[in-house]
Design goal:
The complex is a heterodimer of chains A (136) and B (336).
Chain A (H helix, E strand, L loop, with lengths): L4 E7 L2 E8 L1 E6 L2 E6 L5 E5 L2 E6 L5 E6 L2 E5 L5 E5 L2 E2 L6 H16 L4 H23 L1
Parallel strand pairs in A: 1-9
Antiparallel strand pairs in A: 1-2, 3-4, 3-6, 5-8, 6-7, 7-10, 8-9
Chain B lengths: L3 H54 L14 H5 L5 E6 L9 H13 L7 E6 L1 H9 L17 H16 L5 E9 L5 E9 L4 H13 L6 H8 L9 H8 L8 E2 L2 H82 L1
Parallel strand pairs in B: 1-2, 1-3
Antiparallel strand pairs in B: 3-4
Classes of the chains: A alpha+beta (136), B alpha/beta (336).
Chain lengths: 136, 336
């Protein structure tokens, strides 16, 4: 019998998931890492990419996430805080493709450091979205 | 007493104004509905980031870092340059909404010389006010709180954090309007940078816990909640009482988490403030237009009574004149 923990994924446009989960896999700075129940309490960085978590019915749920933070609480519950989190089927591939091209175009031009970083982040998000959408 | 024509003119002009205020009321109530839906979507995120940063701050080990403004060179600085991000609307006619934010900002910078502060104004009304009155405003910072988007919040926060990292700013405070419910709004101040250190929070919590009556400076500031930047907020108090002194690991490293925490918190806060402000602005405008329409109706009512009275008086006078004239004619005839 698998043991479950409370998982809460909050994006800036609403709560994405609030319920039980068995395991969650998160893209980290140096590769993916997984959190199961009774994990040590910690705070970690989430990179732009794809997360997946197992719901109580044994189904894997995938989602495309932008950068954020993950915290594990003493009681084992996990909160993921991110700017955006979307199901692969909700992603507008056309829009993501456009965003990708726009970001690439902007990166070609001479930009200030801030603009460069924003374009770079936009590019990473667009790529993650397209990748997530393709696999579903 | 004014003539009927004058009163009629006045009634017509008030009716025209009423049409405008009524139309503006309808428009802002529609916009408010949209803004409120967005606010409801954003609220969990906004709250969770504030809670998240509080939880992390009470667990950060004491260290010297630019984000805490406690490096050795920071402590030697004689002037602390303050940045104020002031959120106002793009248009007037919103009751006291814009004035409250402007007033609070002016109060904050009162007595500071121009190189001690810099204003970053969101919204056209506030920008026009501060520039016309000769305040030190960053003119490159041109954003509006209309239709808030994450993208705009990101650009704004990157711009401010960049200035902070270049040490052009030592403190960044945000002045924004929060919607408590559909009738009350509150103008709030929040310090985004530097972050509060673990030691500082601990001292404040101990001070609050030490006096049971809640009369100390820290406790009263906590109760006032939004009007100060020098003490802790309720999230930090809560986080500290839930096991403040225990450390836990940060993945992949403390400095990465700190960096990310600052960027995320800043962007989330700016976004949350944008959403709160756009909702409060529309709410304020809706209420202002509602009362304007009500006032117009009251004036119309009074004017219509006056108009009828004047008209009646005029008719009476005319009749008296006709009768008087007829009587005079009759008398003339009788004499002959």
């Amino acid at each position: 019998m698998a043991s479950f923990f409370n998982l809460k994924i909050i994006a800036c446009d609403g709560v994405f998931y609030d319920g039980q989960s068995e395991i969650i896999v998160i893209p980290g700075a140096d590769g993916e890492f997984a959190i199961m129940n009774h994990h040590e309490k910690m705070t970690g960085v989430v990179e732009v990419g794809e997360i997946r978590f197992k719901k109580p019915d044994g189904q894997w749920q995938k989602a495309v996430i932008s950068d954020g933070l993950v915290s594990v609480y003493p009681d084992g519950s996990v909160t993921v805080l991110s700017y955006s989190c979307e199901r692969p089927e909700d992603i507008d591939t056309f829009r993501a493709q456009e965003a990708l091209e726009r970001a690439q175009e902007q990166l070609q031009q001479k930009q200030s450091r801030i603009e460069y970083e924003i374009s770079n982040a936009n590019l990473a998000r667009a790529m993650a979205r397209l990748k997530g959408a393709k696999r579903s | 007493m004014a003539s009927t024509k004058e009163i009629l003119n006045r009634i017509n002009s008030i009716q025209d104004t009423m049409k405008i205020t009524r139309a503006m009321y309808m428009m802002s109530s529609m916009k408010l509905r949209k803004a409120k839906a967005k606010l409801a979507d954003t609220e969990p995120f906004f709250e969770a980031t504030q809670r998240g940063i509080a939880e992390n701050l009470v667990r950060m080990p004491d260290m010297r870092h630019i984000y805490f403004d406690n490096r050795v060179e920071d402590e030697h600085e004689t002037i602390k340059r303050r940045g104020f991000v002031v959120f106002t609307g793009d248009k007037g006619m919103a009751g006291a909404y814009n004035h409250n934010a402007i007033k609070l900002a002016v109060e904050r910078i009162a007595g500071m010389s121009k190189d001690e502060y810099k204003l970053f104004v969101v919204g056209e009304v506030g920008r026009a006010f501060f520039i016309n009155n000769g305040y030190n405003v960053d003119t490159n910072f041109v954003y509006s709180s209309n239709n808030p988007s994450m993208h705009r919040a990101r650009i704004m926060s990157e711009y401010l954090i960049d200035l902070y990292n270049k040490e052009e700013l030592d403190h960044i405070d945000v002045i924004y309007t929060k919607m408590l419910n559909s009738v009350t709004e509150e103008t709030c101040v929040e310090r985004l940078l530097p972050l509060k250190t673990h030691k500082f929070i601990k001292e404040q919590v101990q001070e609050i816990e030490a006096d049971a009556e809640g009369v100390s400076k820290a406790a009263t500031e906590l109760k006032q909640g939004v009007k100060h930047v020098h003490s802790i907020n309720s999230y930090e108090l809560e986080a500290f009482t839930q096991g403040g002194d225990s450390w836990y690991p940060f993945y992949p490293s403390l400095s990465t988490v700190l960096e990310r925490l600052v960027h995320n918190h800043f962007t989330a806060f700016i976004y949350g403030a944008l959403v709160e402000c756009s909702a409060s602005e529309e709410n304020a405008r809706m209420m202002a237009m509602q009362s304007a329409t009500d006032n117009a109706e009251a004036i119309l009512h009074e004017l219509s009574i006056e108009y009828n009275r004047v008209r009646q008086a005029q008719i009476t006078q005319e009749i008296t004149e006709v009768i008087g004239g007829a009587k005079a004619l009759k008398k003339k005839k009788a004499k002959r």
